[in-house]
Design goal:
Low-confidence stretches of chain A: none
Low-confidence stretches of chain B: none
Number of helices of chain A: 13
Number of domains of chain B: 2
CATH class of the largest domain in chain B: Mainly Alpha
Strand order of the largest sheet of chain A: 1-2
Strand content of chain A: under 5%
Order of helices and strands of chain B: EEEHHHHHEEHHHHHHEEEHHHH
Strand order of the largest sheet of chain B: 1-2-3
Distance between the termini of chain B: 25 Å
Helix content of chain B: 40-55%
Number of strands of chain B: 8
Structural class of chain A: mainly alpha
Radius of gyration of chain A: 22 Å
Number of helices of chain B: 15
Oligomer: heterodimer
Mean pLDDT of chain B: 87
Chain lengths: 365, 369
Amino acid sequence: MVVEEVGTVIDLLHTYLIHIFSQYPFLKPLLIGFVGACVITGILFVAGMFVVWLERKFSADMQTRFGPNRVGGRYGQLQLLADAIKLFTKEDLVPETADIWLFTGAPIIAILSALMMAAGMPFGYVEVFGKQYLMAITNMDIGVLYVEAMAAISVFGIFMAGWGSASKYAVIGAFRSIAKMIGYEVPLAITVVSAAVMVGSLNFVDIVNFQTSLSFLGLEHVPAWLLILQPLGFFVFGVSLLADMGSKPFDQPEAEEELVAGWGVDYSGMRWALIYFSEYFHLILGACLFVLLFLGGWTLPFDMPANLTLPVFFGKVLLVILAVLVVRWSLPRYRIDQVQRLGWKILLPLSLVNLAWASAIGVML
Amino acid sequence: MMPMDEIKDSEMIVHLGPQHPILAGPFMLDLRLEGETVKEAEFTLGYGHKGVEKILEDRMYISCIPVTDRICYLASLSNNEVFCNCIEKLLDVEVPERAQYIRVILMELSRIQSHLIGLGEFAEFIGFMSMFMFLVREREDILTLLEMITGARLTHSFVRPGGVRLDLPENFKEKALKILPDFEKRVREDQETLESDEIYIERTEGVGVVPTSLAKEVGVAGPVLRASGVNYDIRRVEPTLVYKDLDFKVITATAGDTFARAHCRFEEIYESIYIIQQCLDQIPSGEVRAKLPKTLKPEGEVYCRVEDPRGEMAFYMIADGSPKPYRVRIRGPAYATLQALPPVLEGVYVADVPAIIGSMDGCTSEVDR
C-alpha cells in the first residue's frame, strides 16, 4: 500500500517536474546543479572527517602512539565531530593589522577550489531499474583541464591568507607556496597532458574506458592502466601530486619548525577549520584524480556490474590515500630550494621524456 | 643587529622566540632575512634565569644536590656528580670503588637518554616527526634502568658526597645486560633509517658547518666540538672516577656539519653502552658510600669538571668552612656551544635554522641557569 502511495507521489513529482522544465528549460540544469552541489559537499565533508581520523589513527600506529581513543568509543570515532563543533563555535577572530578582505576571502577561495574540483570529476556508475547513471555533476569534454585549473586556484587562497595576515611567518609561508607551485605545477600539467595525448581525449570517462584492458593487444585480462603504459608519468605525477596536496616532504609553506604554522598562523576557529578541511579535500580529490588518470578509475580488467563501480573506485582511492599517508609520516621535509631543483632539474625533463613516449605510443595505438 | 632604519626594503627581521615551537626553553633569536636567506643572526639569552648559583649559596651542601638537578633535567646526574666531586676534593675523601662504578653507569645512562632526546628533536626540526617518536620509545628502556637504580625518571638527586645514595638493586646486572643489546640493535636500526634517507642527507650534509678554528675560538663543547675534528673529551683529558680503567673510543668527525654532529651522538650512544657493559663486568663488591660527618664543612677553593652529555660541565666552588658554600660558579657547555650560532647561521636558509639549532642540542635551561 505504502509503496504504491510513494510510487504515486514520485510519479506526480515527475510529471510536475517535466511540466515545469518544459515551460522553463533553464531550471533543469540549475536544479541538478544545486542538488549535486549539496550532495558533493556533504559527501566531501564526511569523507574529509573520515580521512582526518584515519590519518590520526594511522600516524599514531606508525609512531607507536595511541591516537584518539576517548570520544565515541575506543577508536575515537567521534573525535573529529567534537573537534569540528569546537572549531565552529569558537570566536571569529580577525587580527587588527590584517587586510580584512584578503583574510576573510582566503578560506572561501581555498574551499571553493576543492569543491569546484569535485564538480568536474566522475566517480562511477549507479544502475537503477536497468538504467545507468554516471555519478558526476558534469561530464565535461575538457574535464581533465578543468580539474587541473581548479586545483591550481588553491594557491591563490594560500597566498591571500599569507599576505592578508600581515604576519612575517605567514608572508614567508605564502612566498614559499608560490615558489613551490612554480616548481611542481609544470611537470604536473605535462604529465596530465601526456595522459590525455595517449588516450586522445580530455574527458575523464574516455580516459577511464581506455584503461579497462589491453584488449587491443590481445591481452584480455591485463589492465591497461596508465601506470603500466606510462610508468614515468606515474612517478612524476605522483611526486607532483604530493607537492600539490602539501604532503610531508613538500609542506614547506606551513613548516611548523621554522614558520610556526606558515601562512595559516593567524587563523583560528571556523576559518581555520575551512582551510584545514580544504587541505584534506585536496588530499582526497588528488587521490581521485590519481585513480582516474593512472589506476583505471572504476574499472577492473574484467566485466562487472555497474553498481560495483563506486566501491571499486573508492577502494582504489583509499589505497592511494594510505600510500600518501605512509609517505607523509616517514619522510623529513625538503628545503624550498631543493623542491625547485627537484621540480625543474628532475621532474620536468622526466615529464618531457614521458610526453614524447606517450605521443609515440599514442600514435601507434 | 643593525638598526631598523638601515634595513633594506627587501629584507625583514623575523623573531624566532622567545616562544617558538622549536625552542624547548625560551630564548630570542632575531634573524635578518633577505628572502629565505639569513643575513645576520643575533640571539638574546636570559629569559629563563633561575638564579641557581645564588640559591646554592643559601643551602646546606647536601640540600644543594636537588638544585643541581634542575640546571638541566636531561643531565641531572652529571650535575650531581660534578657538585659532589667538588666537595670530595675539598674534604679529601676517597670514594669507594663500587660507588665510582655506579656513578659511571649512571652518567653513561644519562648521556644515552639525553642524546636520544637531542637526536629526536633534531630529527623533528627537519620535519621527521616519526623519528622523534621512535627515539623516545627507545629511551624508555634507559629510563627503566635509571628508575631501577634511582627511583626517578628525571631529576634523580642520587649522587652523594663520598658515594651514592643506595647500592644497585639485586637483579640490575641481569636486567641491564638483557636490555642493552636489544636497545642497541633498535637504535642502530633507527640510525640506519635516518642516515639512509636521501632527504635527510640533503638537508644535513654541508649545512651549518662549524669550522675547527671557530669551534676552538668560541669554545663549543661536547659532540659539537668533536664533530668539528677536535679530539677532546674530559673523560680522556682529565679522567675522574674509574674512566681511566675503561676502554672506549672518543668519537670524532671532520666535517663539522649537522650530519656529523648527529652521527657523533649516535656513535657516542654505542660507546656508552660499551662502557656500561664493562662496568657491569668489572664492578667490585663493597661499600657504596664513604663515612663522612653529618654536617659537611669543607674549606678552600676547587675547580672540577666532568663530561656532560653536552660537553664540559665545570663547577668552581669556594668554601669558607661554614655548612653552606660561599660561592659556586657554574660553567656550562650549552652556553658556550650556542655562541657559535650567530656566525654559523649567517648565509644559511631559514629552513636550516631549526636543523642547526637542533644539532647544537643547546639546553636553554642550562644556558640560563
